[in-house]
Design goal:
By secondary structure, this protein is mainly alpha-helical. Helix content is about 65%, strand content about 0%. Its EC number is 1.14.19.-.
């Protein structure tokens, strides 16, 4: 489950795996603070452009909350297991209708069996590469809210967030049958709708619907799919840790709108999954310094990763 141990010494891994309560708290504060700034932008200059920007930024920060919950699932967000459980559950997972315990069970199975027949995420990645038309249809469903509505229904049924496709929901159902507890859903719903109500109190009555529910149903689903495709779409179905996953380089705009909190360093995360997200760039450089660059599956940007998976305009 830790392929990196074959290529890095314990002395090299130890400082990379060092966790910080202060940095973990900063990441959570940064995520919610960015959401608040997006609201402030629209409040100060209310117009269609700032509305769209706010929806996109908040949708990307909803993905950011999912990433920080993911960190907590690996006990990498804080040094304290209690903080990982509490903050990861209530400030990261529940606001986006995700349940930390169920996600951890699912996600560690993905790490153990990456891109093999036992990988629960294989149903998401095995459909790539696909056609340009198929990807357009998927993105259209995401951006028009159809994926999000289907996903919300899936949440009500299973209390776990996936990519929103029917086949993904079917794949998850059996894996989570033992860990899903129906009463747990009622812990997520009040938090999710509580954010909507709070935004309505802070601003106009409709702010929560426009700036929490709408991003959740649209941009969050879109960037979630883009991230899933970039990480494992059109990669090898093998046990080679350098080829069954992809790292995608991301500039400032991509980090703002598509790939927050170093989620683009996915190959490095699979190499040593308990390394905190803020140390993944250092792990990337360490692998390059060891001469492993030619073996690593990387893309220069998200556009390139999507093209590998099928996003090519028809001739």
């Amino acid at each position: 489950m830790t392929p990196g141990k074959a290529y890095l010494t314990p002395e090299e891994i130890r400082p990379l795996a060092e966790r910080s309560d202060l940095r973990g708290a900063w990441l959570v504060a940064h995520c919610w603070g960015t959401i608040a700034l997006a609201l402030a932008l629209f409040a100060l200059w209310p117009n269609p452009l700032t509305f769209v920007i706010a929806v996109m930024v908040i949708g990307s920060r909803q993905l950011g909350l999912a990433i920080l919950m993911h960190e907590a699932a690996h006990n990498a967000l804080f040094k304290s297991r209690g903080l990982n459980e509490t903050v990861g559950e209530w400030l990261c997972g529940r606001p986006i209708m995700a349940e930390l315990a169920a996600y951890r069970h699912y996600h560690l199975t993905h790490h153990r069996f990456t891109q093999t027949d036992k990988d629960p995420d294989l149903v998401l990645s095995s459909k790539f590469p696909t056609s340009h038309a198929s990807m357009k249809r998927k993105f259209a469903r995401d951006l028009t809210g159809r994926t999000g509505i289907k996903q919300l229904m899936g949440q009500i049924m299973m209390s776990v967030r996936l990519a929103g496709d029917d086949d993904a929901i079917k794949a998850a159902a059996s894996d989570f049958a033992q860990s899903f507890k129906a009463p747990q859903l009622w812990k997520s719903l009040p938090v999710f709708f509580g954010v909507i109500v709070l935004m309505g109190i802070v601003g106009e009555w409709w702010w929560g619907l426009a700036f929490w529910l709408l991003p959740y149903l649209t941009w969050f689903q879109f960037v979630l799919r883009v991230r899933n495709i970039a990480e494992h779409g059109a990669t090898e179905q093998s046990d080679d840790p350098f080829r069954n996953v992809r790292t995608t380089h991301a500039g400032p705009l991509a980090r703002l709108l598509v790939a927050p909190y170093w989620v683009n360093y996915h190959l490095e995360h699979h190499m040593i999954m308990h390394v905190p997200c803020y140390n993944l760039p250092s792990l990337h450089r360490t692998l390059l310094d060891k001469g492993l660059g030619p073996r690593m599956n990387t893309a220069p940007g998200y556009g390139a990763a999507l093209r590998e998976a099928g996003w090519r305009a028809p001739a």
